[in-house]
Amino acid sequence: MVNVIIQYSLYLLILVLIAIPLGSYIGKVMNGEKVFLSRICFPCEKFIYRILKIDSTEEMTWKKYAASVISLSVVSFIVLFLIILFQGYLPLNPEGLKGTSWHLAFNTAVSFITNTNWQAYSGESQLSYFTQMLGLTVQNFVSAAVGITVLFAVIRGFINKQKDRIGNFWVDFTRTIIYILIPLSLLVSVILVSQGVVQNFKPYDTVQLVEPITLKDGTVVTNEMVPMGPAASQIAIKQLGTNGGGFFGTNSAFPYENPTALSNLVQILSILLIPAALVFAFGRNIKDKKQGIAIFSAMMIVLLIALACVAVNEQTGTPQLTANGSVDIGTKNQAGGNMEGKEARLGIASSVTWSVFTTAASNGSVNSMLDSYTPLGGMALMLLIQLGEVIFGGVGCGLYGMLGFAILTVFIAGLMVGRTPEYLGKKIEPYEMKMAVLACLATPVAILIGSGIAAVVPEIADSLNNAGAHGFSEILYAYTSGGGNNGSAFAGFFADTAFINVSLGLCMLFARFVPMIAMLAAAGSLANKKKIAATTGTLSTSNTMFVFLLIFVILLIGALSFFPALALGPIAEHLKMLG
Known about the structure:
Blueprint: H1 2-31, H2 38-52, H3 62-85, H4 102-113, H5 123-126, H6 129-159, H7 169-194, E1 205-214, E2 220-226, H8 231-240, H9 261-285, H10 289-316, H11 319-322, H12 347-360, H13 375-386, H14 397-417, E3 422-423, E4 426-427, H15 430-455, H16 458-463, H17 468-483, H18 498-527, H19 544-578
Antiparallel strand pairs: 1-2, 3-4
């Protein structure tokens, strides 16, 4: 047990130690300050501005900034949709894979432009190298960069004074790609390749099995197909950009995506690295590091609670596993606990850490099967998404979502003490409150409406592998994942249908762009206001009381919104298991 605690602690400690200096670097980049990569990246940045005729001195209103975000996303969707649909006619397709159905192409294109990366397909059997590399990998960069640029536009809303400008989207986007995402992805890709992650354009290999396998019908299998492809480059950005879409169907449980203990460690750290660093960048750029630490503390406290909940439940297992001593879940000579659906080479601690990080970070990649987790362990993972993906959330979108909750918190606190609410020196008035509420409620609305409709559709009920409470949990998790722009899955039912693909796609779009536009609108309004000097009566937003009040508001909106649904799913399953 001591070794397990040390393992969890090391993951968190290394994460924080890397995130702090990275946050400072990101803050400098987005401010246009000189960094150690400027000598290499600045000429590239200027070249892009010149080729694309971007006026880097232009400042945009929030409406123009939002229009730029939407226009880029629309073009990205159209291009990716067509690539997937017509991949059979495109190059880099050694296996001769045909295009997918229109609804699967729609779902996948929406999924990747919204930073969700929900996969109703198996990558190695349905998508070509061209689609994976020039379609999906490119969108992993683009969607991640969009989230980060919007965050810094929101930050400028608090910094700027009586000025309705929040930056230039195309400048922010270019800097994010060139200075942050590409260098980090190159570094992680090289590490992954050194560990054995595949990166090639070879056709799939056929290998001889060490031992033949005899099927039920008497057929003897002596060979196995081994997929190849440019995987490492996509895996690096899928983790760093909190995208999560695996190159192979079984994601990071597959040895070609995650072959060693070091590759596992690097990928786990990559999942939360940029979201955690952005919190420190936020504190630096508003010139009040205590504010960043307060937000980071709130996120970390909830993350630790979720990690403890999942770890205890998975290590303890279930009464059914230990019934009559039929299964030994002790830790003396083995990993112990609930090992169903987990890689024996990774164990419970590494699997739990990955699963908590990926659901906290809007990442969605997995190295174990979430459907096999205990009811309460799975519920904690589901709840991390349902809170609004703000513990730490996706790159950029997690933090601006958390700032929406911070606005709600100061408003509630202001009502309690009878003062006009203020946050970071700006008055919070009805318009900002409306936008914050819209941003915070978009996720619950998308998830509850989507899963509610899906639960009564006969074709979904008929395709479930599990009946009762667990079957409902599988449906709820699917729409939680789509509505939270996460992308992970319980699985357990056939997801590649027109209804699932279209309905989940609409949930993804709603949950991505409604909060994004709402927070940009709030930023535009805040930027136009004057700064208010703090007085003795000003509510502190960097002390312990505010941290716990912020956590309370997040749980109040997130947990209570979903309690009835959770009661029908994982809670009912847990009580039935005990009874």
